[in-house]
């Protein structure tokens, strides 16, 4: 066996310690975050979210919230429809309404938004919103969802971003968002000739990337344009979807 050793050049790139550009600002508390941005006459929005996993929305009562001093507006899905006739978005599927329309699909789905002078008033107003749900059977397990009669979305609407989803346009009565079939060689023969065949079921806990910055966005309207300050990791996608929903040009 032979071994090859490379000598590192002290003046070169290999072996050189490289600090993250923003590391010093973050650890010293000087980094700018969207959450800290304050604009003149800025309103704070707080989201009222669904408390049921699956259900029809019978009625939404926002009257008490709207009358609270300091509240400028309470917006529901019906208000959105007056501006955006098809208010569904998403990177892979256009299956997420800006605010729930007719039904809710999961606990935490946005149902209404309060715009107020400060976050405390907005939170207080959210607590005054009343929603009457007709609860529907729900599915809570991804394996069960694959064969369940409980359907989350009545029709699949691929966004067009991913070519391998285009064949799913219009598919109904399914919770399967992607199917991919690959066959190569004689599978049965390979199993029969194998010395050992292992078959197991693996499960893992839920995982979420948790950045230091809170999930927050600020919209700053201007003359024939809007500037969006967002904590999103995909600013280009945000621009594309906002422009598409509003019928505006991206540039």
Give the DSSP E fraction (strand runs of 2 or more residues): 15-25%
Residues in helix, %? 10-25%
Oligomer: single chain
Helix-strand string: HEEHEHEEEEHEHHEEH
Main traits of this protein?
251 residues; alpha+beta; Aldehyde Oxidoreductase, domain 3; three-stranded antiparallel sheet
Summarize the structure.
With 251 residues, this protein is of the alpha+beta class. It has 7 helices and 10 strands. The mean pLDDT is 90.
Q: Could you characterize what this model shows?
A:
With 251 residues, the protein is an alpha+beta fold. The protein has one domain (37-205, 215-246): Aldehyde Oxidoreductase, domain 3. The protein contains seven helices and ten strands. It has helices spanning 23-27, 63-67, 77-81, 119-126, 142-145, 187-193, 235-246, and strands spanning 44-49, 55-61, 71-76, 88-89, 96-97, 103-104, 110-116, 130-135, 217-222, 225-230. The chain has a three-stranded antiparallel β-sheet. The chain has a three-stranded antiparallel β-sheet with strand order 6-2-8, with no helix packed on it. The longest helix has 12 residues, at 235-246. The radius of gyration is 25 Å and the shape is globular. It starts with 22 loop residues before the first helix and ends in a 5-residue tail after the last helix.
